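Sharing a chain and its predicted structure for anyone who wants a worked example. Both blocks are below, sequence first, tokens second.
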Amino acid sequence: MLALALVFTGCAQEAEAPAATEIVEVTAEPTEEPAPEPTEEPAEELTIVSTVPSVTEILFELGVGENIVGVDGVSNYPDAVMDIEKVGDYNGFDVEKSGSFKSNSSISW
């Protein structure tokens, strides 16, 4: 019985939507907002300790290699990594050395 009721309900004609009687064109006037005031405090320089070779490579590709202050002991690419202080490897990291950089970011995987 329920199945028949659903079939007949589904076959009913749909009511037609009322036709639009008026088309109104809306235009937005550009508004000028005042520029934000510059802050007096300089932004803190980004410093990074990277603990994974692949992350180190990605950071260099993103253009933030000059902000890396410490890397893991097995990172060897790109060549600029060889001049960055090593903080450890997969067997362990020197937490005191990592903390001495006062880095504001540490990236690991």
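Comments welcome. The two ends are 61 Å apart (CA to CA).
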